[in-house]
Amino acid sequence: MSQRFIRKDVLEKVRTLSAFDYLRNYAPDLLVKNGRTDYYHRDHDSLHFSNGKWYWWSQGKGGTSALDYLIIVEGYEFKDACNYLSELMNVSAPVTTYYHPKPIKSFELPIKDKNNDLVISYLCEVRKIDKGIVDDFISKGMIYQSANFKNAVFVGYDKDKPAYAFKRSIFKNFKLDHAGSNKAFSFNYTNTNSNELHVFEAAIDLLSYMTLLKMDEIDYTEFNYLSLAGASDKIAAKNEADMPIALNAFLERNPNIQIIVFHLDNDEVGRGATQKIMMIARCNYQCFDNHPVNFKDVNEELVSIKI
To answer: Which CATH number fits domain 8-91: 3.40.50.1370, 3.30.70.270, 1.20.120.10, 3.90.580.10?
Structure first.
């Protein structure tokens, strides 16, 4: 029965129901599994649910409760949403999800090799990246050679602590985030005095662009740079616009950014991801699509010039 005013006890009761438990109990067909503990909404694939919380990336809105979900996503009026949830819960009490606290385990980088000779040779001789740039990142602990497989490891930091590592084989087509990596701290170069961010699919493209700038006698240290570490495939496959975790987190950490220049791959995936990201980002930033025109990616462009 609809009420003119919402009693305090009713409001407290409906606020205990999370959006995830609302869907799991009363509209399970709308939940699509997207990993071990993550889900997305069947009708809004940029609306994600994880650890009791939800976030609608295409709208930049999120929350926890079913009440907020009904109001923001489904368009309910506050009173109607309260009454609807109260009646549902009275008819059929929901089964609620208990979230076990995740054990806190410090992130550990792959073991470093005794030198970086093979990785330096690969990046500089095969990929044609400027040695001074490679040496600079090595000196900062952001690039090194792993001991076991001689992978090139690209490291991202949470302040002064490693929080992310991307492993790239120098012998075969193997590339993967290291276990426990936090994509919010993907490989990047930060200049807090700059309002311009350049975004790439991979660390090698990022370093290649720096090299191209240096070849044109432009000071590459004047800008910010970010690798999305392979997020483009998933973004391009979605129906709605989506913001990669790495980019969203970088922008939150760096409120000085006003301009974003995208250098994603010149293929269907890269161009599609660029357009979807820009649909969201252009609300708050000047955005430019500067993908390579005559080459698949930035590194291919660099290699063609240096041959």
So the answer is: 3.90.580.10
